[in-house]
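Project standup — Tuesday

K.O.: blocked on the structure for the chain from last sprint. Re-posting the sequence here as requested.
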Amino acid sequence: MTATVSFPIDSPLGPRTATVAYERKGSGEPLLLLHGIGHHLQAWHPVTDILAAGHDVIAVDLPGFGVSQPLPDGVPYDLGTVAAALGSLCSALGAERPHVVGNSLGGLLALEMGRSSLARTVTALSPAGFWTEAERRYAFATLRAMRVGALALPLSTLERLSHSAAGRTALTGTIYARPARRSPEAVVAETLALREATGFEETLAAGRSVRFTEDVPGLPVTIAWGSRDRLLLPRQGVRAKRVVPEARLVRLPGCGHVPMNDDPALVARVVRDTVRKAADEAADKGADKGADKGADKAANTEVG
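H.V.: unblocked you, prediction finished:
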């Protein structure tokens, strides 16, 4: 069930209040799920139950998307402001420094949260921000075309198209490699989410100058790319690896730009592998600390 939470955020205009919708299920270490531009938290439904078997999973509608309220008037949708707001959201929900998983815009935000010490691990699925200028223009033109189509379609036509595989492909084939797998209800809901996204234009405008150029040191990072991503081309993953050299770069065979629908089991496994790496590193540090204490005790014994 979707709930909402209001919380204070810092902004260039001073303290403001944001209100965000979210779904939460499962127990364990917190795991935050961030969708892409024009989408909504339901994009994660194919993997939510799998991940909730071992985690406190929090899927959110980003500010200005889904049923979340837009950011307060005058507050920019730039990367730093939104990432910090998500950190404040986690604090409000008692889930500080979660594992963060993001797709597209959400992947970019996940990396920024990692860079800002707001995440304990990052899994970025086809993250934005590693494009050339030509690739960015292509992606933005495609997104605008999708938005124009969503705005123009009468609801009756949308519902009719959603009931055939060909119609679902026409509506969502840009972002899914297997659009026919989406249910008619899901296709209608996500098309309406794109139509009604109050933060779409400001987010797109803020993204014109975005390039992710800084490393994300000190925590496990996975960057995964669908082999059939037609919006952000897979070669951008190679650039991402150069920027974040310690990241694990994973290919998602047969997956499109939103891979959670195309291969839920694979995406869930990639996320779990990233989280497991953090646990392994923590265990190694604990073992090293124990060994150091043992060595110190032996040295003290010898001196005595």
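K.O.: great, moving the ticket to review. The first helix runs from residue 45 to 52. The radius of gyration is 20 Å.
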